[in-house]
């Protein structure tokens, strides 16, 4: 075998010639233009990774790309590809040679999933299978999957990773099924590395106020709704039930700052990249719960605004309390939340007050 002369590596060198120790690992973020994806892209670049985004922009806005350049100093490439287009996904993987994937892409509105179950199963399952097949063909062996606490069977105790699973809507079942597909893929391919991350309730924004959560339609979650009331886009907040056995009768949930969540992805990725096969499952949550009214009060303090609300009927299936036990993530890869409720609300208000309509311009009729 001839000895190879060492040559300076370039960002475009691919294949076995590049020094893996000296070069940044190349990570594909599917859905990387979305809320959690964009914050994770910033953290990946800060951690020294080379990043590429695959996103069809169905639930995101291309304007996030210029904000990412502003925050990172890098031109992060965006490939406008639908993950259900197997040919396009294969071509991207063949051209780019990724070391790992963080898989955020997927439809995620619970109510819409109940109304359009086939659309959700087709998109989320087929898209993920296309990503896994392209990884296999191109020799990419590490994937971090964006799952959800919605895979757990309803329970009031803090949820650890051993708690029973069971979903109440098609969105949740797509996450559950993808987790099963990934675990089966690891059994079949002993060299595949999988990290499954079950999120609780991400809130907040990058401290710059330049990127944040920008729902394209009616918000599905509490905080974006509160934020839109604060900037005058909505009249008042509906609080679903105030007769639960909680501190003030309103539902308690585990909220996590989106930057803490993004850092959890980096920890998980760094854990699995050197592995030689296996599947790890971790919760990413704070382990602490806040009620709806506690969140409203904290946001009022951060914004200096009053958030009008009205109490309406409970939603069917809602529990009094849902919080995480995230001890396993700390034990396995040293991750725990660093940011508190005030950080969540301050950053959310900075983003919303600087960008009242998210990445969109104010409508002319407003």
Describe the structure.
With 366 residues, this protein is α/β, with parallel strands linked by helices. The protein is 37% helix and 16% strand. It is built from 11 helices and 13 strands. Helix 1 packs across helix 8 and helix 3 (86-96) runs parallel beside helix 5. The longest helix is centred in the middle third of the chain and has 22 residues, at 117-138.
For the secondary structure, the number of strands is: 13
| Secondary structure: helix percent | 25-40%
SSE pattern, N- to C-terminal: EHEHEHEHHEHEEHEEHEEHEEHH
The averaged pLDDT comes out at 92
Structural class: alpha/beta
**Sheet having the most strands:** 7 strands, parallel
Please indicate the percent range of residues in DSSP E strands (runs of 2 or more).
15-25%
Rg (C-alpha, Å): 21 Å
What distance lies between the first and last C-alpha atoms, to the nearest angstrom?
71 Å
Which segments are poorly predicted (pLDDT under 50) over 5 or more consecutive residues?
1-22
Coarse shape: globular
Question: In what order do the strands lie side by side in the largest sheet?
Answer: 3-2-1-4-5-6-10
Determine the number of helices (DSSP H or I, runs of at least 4 residues): 11
């Amino acid at each position: 075998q001839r000895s190879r002369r060492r040559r300076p590596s370039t960002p475009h060198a691919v294949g076995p010639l590049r020094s893996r120790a000296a070069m940044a690992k190349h990570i594909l973020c599917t859905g990387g233009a979305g809320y959690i994806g964009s914050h994770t892209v910033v953290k990946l670049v800060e951690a020294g990774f080379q990043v590429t985004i695959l996103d069809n922009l169905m639930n995101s806005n291309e304007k996030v790309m210029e904000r990412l350049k502003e925050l990172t100093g890098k031109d992060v490439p965006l490939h406008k590809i639908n993950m259900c287009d197997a040919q396009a996904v294969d071509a991207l993987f063949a051209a780019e040679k990724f070391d790992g994937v963080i898989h955020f892409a997927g439809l995620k509105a619970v109510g819409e999933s109940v109304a359009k179950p086939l659309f959700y199963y087709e998109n989320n399952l087929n898209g993920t299978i296309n990503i896994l097949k392209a990884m296999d063909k191109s020799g990419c062996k590490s994937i971090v999957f964006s799952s959800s606490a919605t895979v757990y069977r309803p329970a009031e105790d803090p949820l650890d990773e051993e708690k029973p699973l069971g979903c109440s809507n098609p969105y949740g079942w797509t996450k559950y099924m993808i987790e099963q597909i990934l675990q089966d893929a690891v059994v079949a391919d002993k060299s595949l590395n999988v990290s499954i991350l079950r999120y609780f309730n991400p809130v907040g924004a990058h401290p710059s106020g330049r990127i944040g959560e920008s729902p394209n339609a009616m918000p599905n979650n509490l905080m974006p709704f509160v934020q839109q009331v604060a900037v005058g886009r909505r009249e008042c907040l509906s609080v679903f039930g105030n007769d639960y056995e909680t501190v003030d009768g309103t539902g308690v949930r585990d909220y996590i700052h989106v930057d803490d969540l993004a850092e959890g992805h980096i920890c998980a990725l760094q854990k699995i990249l050197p592995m030689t096969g296996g599947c790890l499952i971790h919760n990413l949550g704070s382990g602490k719960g806040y009620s709806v009214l506690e969140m409203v009060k904290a946001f009022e303090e951060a914004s200096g605004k009053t958030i009008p609300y009205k109490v309406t009927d409970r939603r069917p299936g809602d529990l009094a309390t849902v919080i995480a036990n995230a001890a396993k993530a700390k034990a396995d890869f040293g991750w725990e939340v660093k940011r508190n409720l005030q950080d969540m609300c301050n950053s959310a208000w900075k983003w919303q007050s600087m960008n009242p309509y998210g990445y969109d311009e104010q409508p002319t009729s407003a």
